[in-house]
Amino acid sequence: MYGNDFSAPEDAPGGGLLGEVAAAEAALRAAATRQRGGGPGPDADLEAYFADVIDADQKIEPRDWMPEAYRKTLIRQIAQHAHSEIIGMQPEGNWISRAPSLKRKAILLAKVQDEAGHGLYLYAAAETLGVSRDELVQLLLDGRQKYSSIFNYPTLSWADVGVIGWLVDGAAIVNQVPLCRCSYGPYARAMIRVCKEESFHQRQGYEILHTLAHGTLEQKAMAQDAVDRWWYPSLAMFGPPDGDSTHSARSMAWKIKRFSNDELRQRFVDMCVQQAEILGLTLPDPDLRWNEQCQAYDFTEPDYAELMRVISGEGPCNRQRMEHRRRAHAEGAWVRVAAAAYAAKRSTAREAVAA
Ligand code: BYC
């Protein structure tokens, strides 16, 4: 925490979202030490065994048998998630050279670097499913795999960096905390660390906005303008409404997803209302109000037609993001060649010592 002037959602009674991450981590450790009865016998019905593991809330590990569709779904989701982390470095990276102070610049640099690290954990998790990082990166560059819609919006002011931390990382945490209990072990374990770091990212964004919202009138107006532009795209991050979600039902049955897109979107709205009040900023939805019966806020849904346009490549920055990524990939080719040559040299040296 940066000061005692505001509280973050993780400080909520009962531990909040970080409390859920700690509980998921404890469950993962317990699952790792639990005996599984030696796994399936030679004549076992593998499908039934897989279903039993899922039912018992145990983890599927890379060497376990799994249905091909489960493997494909995981590769799709984890790869999309990894690509989002990598492309997600661009909108904020845009402000590193223009951060308002040395302290802000150092924090932003570290945050953007963290996103690269998240991409690496996730590519590594995907590789346990029998696909290589090179293949996945190529699928992104060829436009055959997606990344989150949110990173196709421009960062127009310094306040956008604050809003990305507060709303975008906030939405990411709400979506990712349940993934810490995903049925696939490597993905669940990667999510524990990602969520802890995202929680810090959210606080830094919230603190930037808190400073701006309590600064000059111009600073407050800049913060409000950023919230106005990012609110609905952040709601759209959770995906299409449940009725239009192609993968949710199956992913939930497999315990990859634990909640539907709409359930998580609602949870996010409920979390943001009080935080916006503390910031002194207004969420740009005139129909946002407490519903006593549902014990949740009613809100205006994002424009899902816009989400579909952005996903299909027609967002404000899609072309720019992909061009930048392709250029960075091409310009970084020599680094990959050098790293591979160095790794080969070290392994030859190790073999020579062992011989
Ligand atoms: N953007 O059946 P549905 C971050 C696609 S990074 C683009 O509901 P599912 C950060 C979906 O893929 C945060 N595409 O799908 C980084 C599917 O298309 P395909 C990234 C979207 O998978 C840097 C189709 O629409 N987080 O936080 O059950 C700096 C139908 O959707 C989107 C993750 O990736 C979208 N918003 O649910 C700062 C979390 N929504 O594949 C911050 C992991 C939907 O059939 N992913 N689509 O062609 C998930 O939890 C799920 O994949 C989703 C979608 C909730 C996103």
Task: Summarize this structure as a short list of keywords or feature phrases.
single chain, Ferritin, binds benzoyl coenzyme A, 14 helices, 2 strands, 2 domains, 355 residues
Description of the molecule:
The chain is globular, with a radius of gyration of 22 Å. The protein starts with 15 loop residues before the first helix and ends with a helix. Residues 1-7 and 9-14 have low confidence and may be disordered. It has 14 helices and two strands, in the order H-H-H-H-H-H-H-H-H-H-H-E-E-H-H-H. It has 355 residues and is an all-alpha fold. It binds benzoyl coenzyme A.
Distance between the termini: 53 Å
Secondary structure tally, helices: 14
CATH topology of the largest domain: Ferritin
Helix content: 55-70%
Strand order of the largest sheet: 1-2
Oligomer: single chain
Assigned CATH class of the largest domain = Mainly Alpha
Low-confidence stretches: 1-7, 9-14
Under CATH, the homologous superfamily of the largest domain reads Ferritin, core subunit, four-helix bundle
Radius of gyration: 22 Å
